Fold this sequence. Notes:
By secondary structure, the protein is an alpha/beta fold. The protein has 7 helices and 8 strands, in the order αββααβαβαβαβαββ. The protein starts with a helix and ends in a 12-residue tail after the last strand.
Amino acid sequence: MSFRRALALAACGLAGGSVLFSAVGVGKQPARGAGGDAEARPAGTAAAGLLLPPAPSLPARAGGSGYWDSNWDRREPLALINLKKKNEETGEEELASRLDHCKAKATRHIFLIRHSQYNLDGRIDKDRTLTELGREQAELTGRRLASLGLKFDTIIHSSMTRATETTNIISKHLPGVKKISTDLLREGAPIEPDPPVSHWKPEAVQYYEDGARIEAAFRNYIHRADAKQEEDSYEIFVCHANVIRYIVCRALQFPPEGWLRMSLNNGSITHLVIRPSGRVALRTLGDTGFMPPDKITRT
């Protein structure tokens, strides 16, 4: 039997699946379940007489699965109705009507803006004002957002000085857009990063306090549109690198411990899209392509 024929038979032996064969076996770390224990995996799987490489492990998540959780924001229509109140006379027709009533119809566009460069020598928050370059960066970010020609609904910003000042400059380019300040989006330590870093090690209590707050910000602001919303919305959130990176990981259902593997420039734009179905897409991450190279910083 030819090698090509053997490959065809092996592929047919996998019910509806597809196989990627490699000439060199690559070692994989054992996957970890929700409880942190390593799961035993065979070195290979036999199919049609051939030894196939082990299937790649899916990342463990809080839900114990590597698959997409369609009810991640607890706004799946079935989760919003009480099935016990179903009218037995109308049956499935009423259920379908109630489900349709709870379905989101609009898409939410979330623009996450990192504050501009600020004075690192400030001892307290009110002294950590934007630098001259930081103000220039905010101007450039504001112009970029205005150039998109979108009807922005609101600007929600961290109550910290650097985020507030960045918001005030950006808002000059978006007249009429309401500004809302919140403590939920303040900078902090969302969750202990993996892998750890040696130059930044907050106290454990900081993860405990900041993590709960930043998670609350995610649950409060990042979700599919309300069923009553008829038109797509465009919302701006001006906050901080740690907060944005954590939100991106949570929204995409990536391991949140990986938030520190990403870097964001000052004044950068990150664009998340949340569809009515609950599907989430990342359009841009930390975009500063609209800034001249000599204006780009990451402090």
